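#struct-queue
[09:14] JT: dropping the first one here, sequence first, then the structure tokens:
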Amino acid sequence: MFVDRAEIIITSGKGGDGAVTFRREPYVPEGGPDGGDGGDGGNIIFVADNNLRTLMDFKYKRKYEAENGQNGMRRKKYGKRGEDLEIRVPVGTMIIDKESGLLMKDMAHNGDTLVAAKGGKGGKGNVHFKNSIRQAPNFAEAGELPKVRTVILELKLIADVGLVGFPNVGKSTLLSVSTCAKPKVANYHFTTIDPNLGVVDLYDKSFVMADIAGIIEGAHEGMGLGIKFLKHIERTKVLIHVVDVSGSEGRDPIDDYKKIIDELRKYDERLLAKPMLVAANKIDAVCDEEKLTEFIEFVENEGKRVFKISAAARQGIQELLNATINELDNYVEPEAEEVEYFDFEKDELDEDFKKLKAYRAYDGAFVLEGKQLSKIFRSTNFTDTGSMRYLYKFIVDRGGIKMLKKIGLKEGDTVRIEDYEFEYYDD
């Protein structure tokens, strides 16, 4: 099964907690602090791999977690860093942050990498909190929490040439006789329900050709296989529009040609700026020569070159492929469209990290929140006076008490931080 879209949840590793330990030495208060720092958590890293062709693996596994950092140890020993988790995706996969809807990276080349979620930093051991007043700190810093992110993986095939046209016009047959690909071929509509790729070797050159599954009227709105496969045309350099000119099914080739062009235009008008060759297929089974002549004249008046072929009988294939090579040799890459990318620097900077937020809860308690506050709170030893003072000083320095009083905090009121509640009394 060809899967070209998936949604997964990635979680980087949590930073290890700093250690609270003391040396065993005479004449040193409490033996002296010697708690080591925690190790950083592992990163989530995407890697583009040209050995992969589908996002099938992500259909069955949706959660990916990197290793947590190890906690710090005595004698100022650092905790071990968590192992990174590499997630391999097919070349051509676009990685999108679901929350913002912004593109994180287009994995367009083999070996491309993306650190999509950085591991949390390890917390500092209690040795860092010693000062002239606090000789034996009985607390350390908690490791940073992991980064949890939902990302959308969207695969757009990397191919030089795309075969487009209605179902059952001979695209799969053309691919099979031009390359070593073995697509399913049969005389009924929608034989191809997955895109097929093949490599054309011609003289000393080669290119990748993709059989894009049959487009029908209304495809740009999701009819039939719709947008699921129209998007795979976007990366191609040259289009070969395959039209059944035999009239064997009572179809009008001019009408078919117009409808496919219209669907491409409605999906993305830029597709029509790509070089397009028209393959008048099943020429060996033409029922009406007059209609064939009308079709060729119509297409040529549209500024397109027509190649009379029979994919099944292998007629005219060489001339079509020669022209395709020539178009690829003369291809000029259009200017890239401006895309708004996910801002990793802003994400890492987190300007609101040290800010506090105060509000009154539905039950009357006064709530204080903040990312840095949460980290210090998780590091607090509530049985140690020095640790409690460290927490209180942060709250006061950041204006937390003033904010609470501004919304009505009085002595005896309940203050809530995380899941901890206490009564407030003014000093």
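[09:21] JT: and here's the second one, same format:
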Amino acid sequence: MRALHALLLIALAASLAAGCAREQSSQPIIGLITKTETNPFFVKMREGAEAAAKARGARLLSGAGRNDGDNAGQVTAMENMIAAGARVILITVSDAKAIVPAIAKARRDGILVIALDSPTDPVTAVDALFATDNYRAGTLIGQYARAALAGKPARIATLDLLPGHPVGAQRHNGFLAGFGLAAPDAGSTTLGTAQEVVCSVDTYGDQTRGQTAMENCLQRDPGINVVYTVNEPSAAGAHKALVAAGREKDVIVVSVDGGCQGVRDVGAGHIAATAQQYPLRMAELGVEAGVDFVKSGKKPSGYTDTGVALVAARPVSGVESLGVDVGLQRCFGDR
């Protein structure tokens, strides 16, 4: 009887273990890879993905590069997640071209890969893209800057992202188009030029580099009166340089992101206007599509626009915008 009892206990334990294994194997595992861990935009994206995964009964794995542009770190994170059982990878790519071979390998192995925020080059390297229309974001701030300049001759500085990055190119070229200058279309990764653009410097979206870039541009042309910045950290750096030069009150600075600090900077007059994007929406859509794929095999495809809106403290005629109060209600980061 004791032997029989022991056998029954072993059988029961084995059955429970098998049941747990089946439960674990049925839980969708989704990986989220961002450019960095600390940028408020990606922090909010991760929070949104975690909440969406919990609501849909999925398990989320998260990873990031060490800094913006760290392709090797993103490739390693992808390989580790796939080894851990991820069937879906959501990624904000740091290097639009260099990441493509790793994505192609994952897709050949049956992994669904969705780009968030930043497209790959080519865009078709992933199954789907959920992102801001960055060209539209640039167009909005270009329109605002032109209206705010009120007919004065423009002397423009552009504080850009990094060479060949689709997001940086789309925002830059959209800004030129919105300002009424000739510009490449949204599919180009080449930055447009114009005689009104007197200085262009890559900042990698970094505040310190943005400050140095602005200092250099002012040395090159002290008459700069419009500054396009690829994101709000670079805008914050530009503002510091303008304050040091005594130019902060007569230069129009426009940007993209819509983070809480950036919106506060709009309210304080450090930035004239910013185009607000919505990382929470990107993450939610990505997780939902990933869970549906694991459960049904249905793949998302193409591009989904996750929205953009202009935030300005002082509205200008002909350009629709949100006030700072509304921008703060919708922003990401520390309120």
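[09:30] RK: nice, looked through the second one.
[09:31] RK: Residues 3-24 have pLDDT under 50 and may be disordered.
[09:31] JT: good to know. Residues 2-26 form the longest helix (25 residues).
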